[in-house]
Specification:
five-stranded mixed β-barrel, Gyrase A, domain 2, OB fold (Dihydrolipoamide Acetyltransferase, E2P), globular, 571 residues, alpha+beta, BirA Bifunctional Protein, domain 2, homodimer
Chain lengths: 571, 571
Amino acid sequence: MKYTHHNNELNFKHVGEHVYLKGWVQKSRNLGGLVFIDLRDRFGITQIVVKPDHKDYEKALKIRSEFVIEVKGVVLERESKNLNIPTGEIEIEVTDLIILSAAETPPMTVSNDSDALEETRLKYRYLDLRRPVMQNYLIQRHKITQAIRSVLVDEGFYELETPILGKSTPEGARDYLVPSRLYAGHFYALPQSPQIYKQLFMVAGFEKYFQIAKCFRDEDLRADRQPEFTQVDIEASFIDESDIQSLIEKIMVHTFKKVLDVEVKAPFRKMSYKEAMETYGTDKPDLRYELHISDYTDTFKDIDIPLFNGKTYVKGLVLPNGASLSRKQIDQLSHLVKKNHGDALAFIKLTSEGYSGSLNKFMNDEHYASFNLNEQDILFLVPGDNDNALNALGALRVELADMFNLADPNNYQFVWITEWPLLEYDEEEKRYYAKHHPFTQPNDPKVLAENPKEAYAKAYDIVLNGYEIGGGSIRIHNQEVQKLMFKTLGLTDEDVKHRFGFFVDALKYGTPPHGGLALGLDRIVMLMTHTSNIKDVIAFPKTQSAKDQMMQAPSDVDEIQLKELHLKVGE
Amino acid sequence: MKYTHHNNELNFKHVGEHVYLKGWVQKSRNLGGLVFIDLRDRFGITQIVVKPDHKDYEKALKIRSEFVIEVKGVVLERESKNLNIPTGEIEIEVTDLIILSAAETPPMTVSNDSDALEETRLKYRYLDLRRPVMQNYLIQRHKITQAIRSVLVDEGFYELETPILGKSTPEGARDYLVPSRLYAGHFYALPQSPQIYKQLFMVAGFEKYFQIAKCFRDEDLRADRQPEFTQVDIEASFIDESDIQSLIEKIMVHTFKKVLDVEVKAPFRKMSYKEAMETYGTDKPDLRYELHISDYTDTFKDIDIPLFNGKTYVKGLVLPNGASLSRKQIDQLSHLVKKNHGDALAFIKLTSEGYSGSLNKFMNDEHYASFNLNEQDILFLVPGDNDNALNALGALRVELADMFNLADPNNYQFVWITEWPLLEYDEEEKRYYAKHHPFTQPNDPKVLAENPKEAYAKAYDIVLNGYEIGGGSIRIHNQEVQKLMFKTLGLTDEDVKHRFGFFVDALKYGTPPHGGLALGLDRIVMLMTHTSNIKDVIAFPKTQSAKDQMMQAPSDVDEIQLKELHLKVGE
């Protein structure tokens, strides 16, 4: 390319050089007859100056924000330096100025501090993406993707593609369907994950597979969900849990070093699902801060407190230096606890004035002393059954960390959550669901057969700073165990045959032990770039109602297209 | 991992070592009491031997083809060596044998020379993919993908993802549609290519983009087409044709060296569309052989031949040493010519017995001499209008090269086809179509405005050995030119607004000059692995009627799913 430099490269050392630059006009201003132009590209900004006696001066006067221009010129030392940017010591005196493309006034300001509404930003995404902060999200995404892939390739994994036009196998989320033109009334489905395909790669003997895979779920969207998302899909044969875990640790260590220059220590901590739930009230604990949950049931056994009467458990956590919380703040926390299925929130404070709190009239000094509080501590207590009390305290814990800034965004705490229950029982539907998916290997198939409720899975999630960034398991590689699993989930033989027949078949011709994991790429990028909006790390995202604001998709289509697909639109 | 070696690694140097292997049983046989097992993994085969007095002998007797086993043992020198495989000098005497997975007799033979029907192979794709030849196609695909990507990353291109759920913008091929659940009667479309998105990345200032992108076309399939295919999608700003071409040449040189250890010479030859058509009768000439087409119209001006009367052109080509072709063979070629819109096929031979051929009764020696034939040459002639005669001779040329083995599969001849017509006129519909796509920059917008038929495009295809492996262009970056283009294609303002409104809008806020190219990954892998079946290079392909034989997709879906999508199936 003919250009000599990017717009972040020139500094004092280049003074006197002839350079050739291009980019967008960030802004242009006329100061005492001189035209100053801030020229922007994806790397940075360089200041251009055009003097009144220059042949291109008239042209320069016409230039406005977002014009695309080329500049030839000489590097000069600036009079008033701007040491906030790398090129702030110099400016370019123009010898030739060419307008490549004019620009109308854009409907939003192209700068990091733009105050455009999200609707405007999504409609004019191509302008929103010009903002350096947005470019950085996607450039980091690129770098993260390359770093992850490089470890997998080095470790002998093959990057293999699987179809987007697959088969609908409804379990869990809703499929996106694609009507077939050649077979009336038949549909393809977009994959919720390449799960079956990747297991078939193992059956086929590839041994090590990965893919940066697009996945699709037609679910009602939450703030951090999109209809299509990207996962780093990994599967290997002849391995056990620790092989997969070491691989993922290697990927994370390399990626954090390469992209953020952050040293992450491996191996990561391992924690059972049970410990995570009981100590942190969640299966994705944020370990950047303590705030452990404890069981206070025994402590309250002999204290008569109406709020706790008839409750199986009393669980609680101590927030050091939390005694300063106001009544109003505590009311808000109480609200949060109830929203998360907690029965109620009680508290005990120790200040220089002694103990106080919502249980004061039921407690004496001896009772209080048994909590071993330090001055300025506050103890929160939630009565209820085990799961609900823990859930509520888990949510409270996150909220408190947020209020008291306990979580350093530059501290990355990974943890493996292991020993998952294999199944969940749905009391309403009176049936079991797979906690991960129906291909997960039970720790002991006998327990699955005899006492499904007690069955554990060879499954593991990887959690970073309170977010699940990946999940995986060792898979069932034995046809009989797979059949048992389907049966336990309440699928009839016919169901199984219709939906998974080919897959159960595949297991009988020599299937190696295998397992894997899928990393949520979007979420990893979010955590590594410190944004909480998933749309920031996706170039062309959908709104929360699954709409593309820029393209206006979904849209109506020609009648003839529907006819070819043998479809009619009903109500 | 606990295993010590792959199954291609052990040789004479390892004799005496204790090793730990795993894999599939290729075959197992009992010879004079000894059990011999060929153990296979994705790398190769190792011979295992179990003696009758060994503790695992009974187990070994039970082992059949495609069992998955683990073996601990000692490397011994073999008595009867097999020098055809890397491990043929040794065998492993078993100390421990573990069956990881049993196997029923598979419905097809798992070996390169399997004679299973394609239907069987597709139904049991996971077994078909166990065959080393099939594994190799996908492993080469992996390597080719990595090699291509590495050049792009090194050149500063960002790998950026674009949506699969997009908007239907029918021009050219038919879209796959995805019904929306939230908006009754509205549909997403799967992308035929990320064309618009990649241009928007340029509008957004990313400057260098690529993606290994899934693309979709709901067209009637030919042998080398699939409903979904993969392209290496590339776009850059502030560049011209030669920048893109150099980049692609760098990619090809690197990829052929890295994957095949073949030296490809760059820069590649450039040839105008006109020259390609007139000399090779195709826009994707195979340059591994000559067989140039020439114009014989003038030569026949003064010879009265009924077959040529009233025809505008007589075109022909000389096949050296082709005089041995039989009458029957020539009849078949004549058939081919007519199938390819040629009016007729005439021929002239020169053998030791003199001139002969289908025009003999109209020709004298003087006429014959003017062709400058060598002994054993055959000259084929096709009369007709320019395009049809050239087309027919283009097809004849390929067929002759095939019959006479003129094309060395290990010779890779790249050529750029340039100077494309911008538009094609459809006589029936009385309208223009874009020869590439409607975003292609005309060489001169004035010509497009005044005389569209004569307009040339800044477009370039890259052709390898007779196959188009990629195509691209410099794009329109000016809103007015884009509007002119749409108008020339017969789109009303309303059409444009409805389908491309946001895109035409985008062009007005400062769009850099830009262009790019898309490489057909499937086809590149086919050419580099010397297969002519596109299904070989796709892990889970569809049949020619767009069916997944293994999964049985497309399939019927629950009534409730259709109801949620507001759809009814008609006839």
